[in-house]
Amino acid sequence: MQEDNPQLTKKQRRQLRRxxxxxxxxxxxxxxxxxxxxxxxxxIIVTAVIGFGIYKYLFTGPVDGNLAADPLKSxxxxxxxxxxxxxxxxxxxxAAQEIPANIGVSVACMRPVHTHDSTxxxxxxxxxxxxxxxxxxxxxxxEPFNKEGxxxxxxxxxxxxxxxxxxxxxxxxxxxxxxxxxxxxxTENESGN
Length: 193
What we know:
The chain is of the alpha+beta class. 32% of the residues lie in helices and 19% in strands.
């Protein structure tokens, strides 16, 4: 410090003290500004991470690490990944059957295989490609594929198919199931009476 220098006048020493004080104040302001800048940088990064997490949760499917072990138990949303629409129609003894709206949809969860209306359009949505089957749809619906006392025939895009519940659902496929009541067997005629 030059203040102790006997060659400086009283006025010069005062000026020097003022300059040192201003220098310390400026250094303190710069340090505070740097700290404030880092607070803002951290706040922006945290906000971005939280925003990205909310975006991923709301607008994309769950990431593989968060999927249920059984894909049918996963909850999905309408964005990202696989999204296909096969069309299913069912008749029993020639009478068209309505496929209910909101199969696999509840307030808490939307399953990967579901309906939104009663048109027969099945929505298959998943964050990555997965082979869902007709059995999966009936499982989510909680209806048996094989109905006791009935035989079933199936066509896919107007061609006979024997894949039945093992049919892998594909976009745009037109699946028709026709259940016919089995005729009771006449046991009197079979026994020769």
